[in-house]
Amino acid sequence: MRYLAPRTADDAVAALLAEKGPTRILAGGTDVLVQMRSGAVEPDLIVDIKRIPGLDRITREDGGWRIGAAVPNAALGEDRDLRASWAGVVEAANLIGSTQVQGRATMVGNLCNGSPAADSVPALVAAEAVARIHGPDGTRDCPVAEIPAGPGKTTLKKGEIVTSLFLPARPRRSGDAYLRFIPRTEMDIAVASAAVSVELDAHGRIVRARVALGAVAPTVLVAEEAAAILTGTQGEDDVLERMAEACRAICRPIDDKRGTVEFRRSVAGTLAKRAARIALQRAGGQS
Amino acid sequence: MSRIHVATRINGDATEFLCAPEETLLDALRNRLGLTGSKEGCGTGDCGACSVVLNGRLVCSCLVLAAEAEGAEIETIEGMAEGESLHPLQRAFIDHAALQCGICTPGILIAARELLKRNPAPSDEEVRYWLAGNLCRCTGYDKIVRAVQAAAAEMREG
């Protein structure tokens, strides 16, 4: 195995392209090193992207936030403005692993690892976050929702690197939330999860909603009907019940030791309902 | 296999070593530099026995490649006492018998020190959440929490 720490994204792309064997991009390493140790992946080349200037920073852009691919999740929680505007995204990222893992793990890594249970991904999808991708053909932007392709798989092509995520500016009356179910209080992987983001008008009516579900399908699910049910309402109890049912209807979970199909489906809807209440509260609305 | 030359600072001292590309920081600390205070419990970032501070962040050194340490500042348990004088956390762990076999202790001490740097007066719950990534199979954690609180109180008094 070779280890490279290129100083530019172009050099990183070139190194990945030139390598014929398996490659891995290293940011926080909290998945990659575990996979290497277990033998699940045996890369011929590791490309450490942390030496590429700027990737370790959170910067303001067009009223929103650009979060570099090497920013550890702990740094997200330390950014007051980001936490105030995208509380759900930051909470989701900060739920992952221990303090030690938070010091290294990144949201881009969480996304590119391709786990259906990745905590930050539903929150990013609900936030309509956009990934910036450096690749052989230059730079492109891609909605986070389009990157997961199945367990351990992404739509990224050979030589492509997600270098940052963009979280858009937040209007005044907006809020988001992320909830997951785990059988313990800490240090576990989501059995089911839900993220909700809402924007309200001056009367507390939802003018824009987005709902995403995790760990209930091979990839994160965008619950479009659930979002449509919320839109135009104030998130009244009966609306939230219908929204929860719409979430349950699209779940395609697996049965495993962590939870049954029925349990995951039921919990996903309930989590969406509760996350919607928190998002509404944060946006300054009722519930 | 070509070796990678790494220049780093460990507990304030400039240090150089050669490592293999797949070698972890934990292995380099223990096997190349003789810093055996950091332990390997699980090797997969679950137990925290290998906790060190890397550029100001608490991390599991088993989940860091040694090559990543180039130009970094690393703090390990070996740098915690000042000469013969133990850190208040180290004394509190002895006074409260907050260890039995001791394998998890270096990692817990480093982690607890980082907590108290950020939060000098944590609640018991905050201590428990912060240390959730440090597993101890002997003590049942209660004595650890009490020792951290005792050290925190002492450090607050200055």
Termini separation of chain A comes to 55 Å
Secondary-structure content class of chain A: alpha+beta
> How many structural domains can be distinguished in the coordinates of chain B?
2
Could you tell me the number of beta strands of chain B? Answer: 5
Care to count the β-strands of chain A? Answer: 14
Domain FAD-binding PCMH-type (chain A): 1-172
GO molecular function, one term (chain A): FAD binding
Keywords (chain A): FAD, Flavoprotein
Protein name (chain A): Carbon-monoxide dehydrogenase medium subunit
Describe the fold and architecture.
- The complex is a heterodimer of chains A (287) and B (158).
- With 287 residues, chain A is of the alpha+beta class.
- Chain A has two domains: 55-167, Uridine Diphospho-n-acetylenolpyruvylglucosamine Reductase, domain 3 (2-Layer Sandwich), CATH 3.30.465.10; 174-283, CO dehydrogenase flavoprotein, C-terminal domain (Enolase-like, domain 1), CATH 3.30.390.
- Chain A contains eleven helices and 14 strands.
- Chain A has helices spanning 9-18, 32-38, 73-77, 80-85, 87-94, 99-102, 107-112, 120-126, 224-230, 237-250, 261-283, and strands spanning 2-4, 23-26, 45-48, 58-61, 64-68, 130-135, 138-143, 148-150, 153-154, 161-167, 174-181, 192-200, 206-214, 221-222.
- In chain A, strands 4-5-10-6-7 form a five-stranded antiparallel sheet.
- In chain A, helix 2 links the parallel strand 2 and strand 3 (45-48).
- Chain A starts with a strand and ends with a helix.
- The model of chain A has no long low-confidence stretch (mean pLDDT 97).
- Chain B has 158 residues and is of the alpha+beta class.
- Chain B has two domains: 4-79, Roll (Ubiquitin-like (UB roll)), CATH 3.10.20; 88-157, DNA polymerase, domain 1 (Orthogonal Bundle), CATH 1.10.150.
- Helices cover 34% and strands 16% of the residues of chain B.
- Chain B has five helices and five strands, in the order ββαβββαααα.
- In chain B, a hairpin with a 2-residue loop joins strand 3 and strand 4 (57-60).
- The mean pLDDT of chain B is 97.
- The chains are: A alpha+beta (287), B alpha+beta (158).
- The A-B interface holds A 1-3, 5, 26, 28-30, 33-34, 36-38, 46, 48, 50, 72, 74, 97-101, 103-104, 186-187 and B 2, 4, 21-22, 24, 43-46, 48, 51, 54, 57-60, 62-65, 67-68, 70, 111, 114-115, 129-134.
